[in-house]
Give the backbone structure.
Amino acid sequence: MNTNDDQPTGPEDRPATAAHNRRRAVLSDSQQSSAEKLRADLLDLVIRHERETIAARALAGDPNPTDADPLEWVKDIAAAYTADAADTLDRLADQLTLDDVRALRIAGEAAQAVTPRVVMAEADRGKKPPRIADELGLTPSRVYAILREQRDQ
């Protein structure tokens, strides 16, 4: 260590230290490259495992081998529509086919027809009408009316 205050003490004054720092930087880069390669290899292994698992489950007859929510795309449409209806309508008009719209329309009719039974089942499980209303996007008074209608049948 240099104790004389008049002499510079930077890395250029200590060639051995400067060379060591350059070697260390190169080593660090190669270690990072190795780490990136390892990360990529691990990701490839995980993806391959997922694909093989899905394929095996499909071959075994699993109707939903990816465990995906079968209504996810419908929920995505509903969420986008309530968030920004005008933009979503243009996008949906470009993306959906007549078959898609027919399926959604019939599914909507089915959902409307089954709503009273679902409301009644949730109420029977102890869920309060205001919470049912909130989850369904209905008013509490409509849920109470549905419950009265179902109990009168």
